[in-house]
């Protein structure tokens, strides 16, 4: 049985449909990410699970109990918001202790729980200070600690590290994953950052316009996106897409002079060929392949992104190391059919996955 599940969630704000039949289940001890652009429904789903929002239709189950109409405090679920919302006039100790005092916990128990939580979050040395003296990373840990100290069975986090700078976000991702694994808490985590979701989640749900488009592990979704929408959302640099037609076992894009044979596909009509930047091979101009020119080079240290023009389209190629490409020089590209996905050109649904 899943630890947490929602079935048929629907929610509208006036004429705006925020959720349109959301179904998902989260296992005990799982780190589950909700990923999607702004206004796709992920935060409304989180707030409905927590009880801040009430669903117009649907059911929320937690630990086998129907909590759809339960009050926020009665659900046994803790939520961490994007804003820290710390009490500036209280010490960091008192900020951590606040929810326990509200719940009437004894002084000795408060001291024990706050002490254990502070040690876990590496905040022991800060407890006598005020939140305003803490760094951004420490303030975020305080906010997380205020939820942890309650010892709930599940946590809901709404973009908790989005306000931090890039380096701190990387550090906090590692910390969050470490804490979740050590404590074996169930964690539902909202983010718009696909790299963040890929790096921390055991499984993830991809949202679009109030619906879930795909659920799976990060590896499953990266390797086998079920639609062009999902494929566009996952991957950095993003997947390359070339529009054309598919007939008689071949994809053709006349403007780009791309012809790729894909076995085992009987579909025909408008189609989109998709291939990830790391799966394209750059060859010398005297070798077989698709005629192309180097447009721009982005050296990124361990790897390099090469923007290349084929026909009227620019594709991105990721190569290892720091190769020397001359701008405007002619090259050939090789698209291995085993590395190519094929999507329906109208609906965007998957026709054939890459077989690598």
Care to describe what's here?
This protein has 356 residues and is α+β, with helices and mostly antiparallel strands. The protein contains 8 helices and 21 strands. The chain has a 6-stranded mixed beta sheet with strand order 6-7-8-3-9-10, sandwiched between helices. A 6-stranded antiparallel beta sheet has the order 13-12-11-14-20-21, with no helix packed on it. Helix 2 (92-102) packs parallel to helix 4 (136-148). The protein is elongated, with a radius of gyration of 24 Å. The mean pLDDT is 91.
Shape field: elongated
Q: What number is the mean pLDDT?
A: 91
Q: Helices and strands: which structural class?
A: alpha+beta
Q: DSSP strand (E) fraction? A: 35-45%
Low-confidence stretches: none
Q: Which radius of gyration do the C-alpha atoms yield?
A: 24 Å
Amount of helix: 10-25%
Secondary-structure element pattern, one letter each: EEEHEEEHHHEHEHEEHHEEEEEEEEEEE
Number of helical segments with 4 or more residues? 8
Strand count: 21
The profile of the biggest β sheet is: 6 strands, mixed
- In the sheet with the most strands, the strands line up as 6-7-8-3-9-10
Could you tell me how far the N terminus lies from the C terminus, measured between alpha carbons in angstroms? 34 Å
């Amino acid at each position: 049985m899943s630890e947490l599940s929602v079935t048929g969630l629907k929610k509208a704000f006036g004429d705006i449909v925020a959720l349109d039949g959301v179904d998902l289940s989260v296992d005990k001890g799982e780190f589950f990410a909700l990923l999607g652009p702004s206004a796709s429904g992920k935060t409304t789903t989180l707030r409905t699970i927590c009880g801040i929002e009430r669903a117009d239709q649907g059911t929320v189950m937690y630990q086998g109990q129907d909590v759809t109409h339960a009050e926020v405090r009665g659900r046994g679920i803790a939520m961490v918001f994007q804003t820290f919302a710390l009490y500036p006039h209280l010490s960091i100790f008192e900020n951590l202790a606040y929810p326990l005092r509200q719940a009437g916990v004894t002084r000795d128990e408060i001291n024990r729980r706050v002490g254990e939580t502070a040690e876990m979050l590496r905040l022991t040395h800060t407890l006598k200070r005020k939140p305003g003296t803490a760094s951004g990373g420490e303030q975020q840990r305080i906010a997380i600690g205020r939820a942890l100290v309650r010892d709930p069975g599940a946590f809901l986090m709404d973009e908790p590290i989005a306000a931090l700078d890039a380096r701190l976000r990387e550090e906090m991702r590692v910390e969050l994953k470490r804490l979740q694994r050590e404590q074996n808490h169930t964690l539902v985590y909202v983010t718009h950052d696909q790299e963040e979701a890929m790096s921390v989640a055991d499984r993830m749900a991809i949202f679009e316009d109030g619906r879930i488009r795909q659920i799976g592990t990060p590896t499953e979704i990266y390797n086998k996106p079920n639609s062009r929408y999902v494929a566009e959302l996952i991957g950095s640099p993003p997947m390359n897409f070339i529009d054309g037609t598919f007939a008689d076992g071949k994809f053709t894009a006349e403007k780009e002079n791309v012809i790729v044979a894909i076995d085992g596909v009987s579909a025909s009509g408008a189609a989109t060929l998709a291939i990830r930047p790391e799966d394209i091979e750059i060859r010398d101009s005297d070798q077989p392949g698709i005629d192309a020119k180097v447009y721009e080079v982005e050296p990124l240290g361990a790897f390099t992104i090469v923007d290349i023009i084929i026909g009227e389209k620019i594709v991105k190629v990721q190569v290892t190391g720091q190769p020397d490409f001359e701008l405007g020089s002619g090259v050939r590209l090789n698209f291995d059919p085993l590395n190519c996905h094929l999507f329906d050109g109208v609906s965007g649904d998957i026709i054939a996955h890459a077989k690598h």
